[in-house]
Amino acid sequence: MKKLILVSSFLMGKSFIFAQKSAVIETFKKYNISTIILDSNAKQNAADYSYTVHATLITGGQKKVTEEKYHPAKNAAERWELVSVNGGAPSKTDKKLFNKEHNQQIPIAKPDSTSYRILKDDADYLIVSYHYDTSTLVADNNFMKDFPVTLYINKKNGRLERSEVISEEPFKVKVFKADYMMVNTTYIYIEKTDQYLPLQEETTMSIRILGRNAEIITSNEYSNYKK
C-alpha cells in the first residue's frame, strides 16, 4: 500500500508539471502569442549579429564606462573588441582584463520547460516564470540554479518586453558570498527573422568582502545590430 501511494504521488506530480506547461502553451495560443518567446534565447540570437555595447560598471562609488564591439565573423578569440574606456583609448591592462573576461566559454543557460507557469494574466500583460535547466549550467553560473526568471509579455502586441531574474536567497559565486542579485533585461524584436535581441541589461549585485557589503551595478546598452 505504501509503495502504491508513493507511485501515485509521483505520477500526480508529473501530471501537474505537464499540466502547467500545457496551460502556458494554451494561453499563448489563446492570445495569439508566439511560443518563440519560450523556445529562443536573446543572447544566443545575438551571437549571429555584429553589434555595439555601451557598458557602465559602478562599484565602490567609482564608475567605468566602456564601448565594446562584437564581430561574429572573426575567430573566437577576436570577436570581442574593446574600443574605449572612459572616453579614451584602452590601456594594455584594460585589454588584457577585457580579453580574459570575454574569452570565457560559459554556455548560455536554458529554461527548464517543465517549470513554466503563469504568474499573472490581466488586461495588459501575460507574466510567465520558469527556472533554469540545471543540466545547462556549469561551475561559473551554477549559483543561478534556484533563480526564478520572469517574462513580461505585452498582450496588446504579443511581444516580450522584458525579463527579470531575482535571487530569492543569499548565494555564493566563486569565492564571494552575495546577499542578492537582480537582472533586468529589455528586448528588441526583429520581425524579419522572428527573433528577440537584448536592448538593455542591468545587473545589481550585493556581495560581501571581508565582512563588508559592496554593491556592483552593471548596465549594458546594445545597439547597431547588423547581420
UniProtKB/TrEMBL annotation:
It comes from the Bacteria. Keywords: Signal. Residues 1-19 form the signal peptide. This is DUF3108 domain-containing protein. It comes from Danxiaibacter flavus.
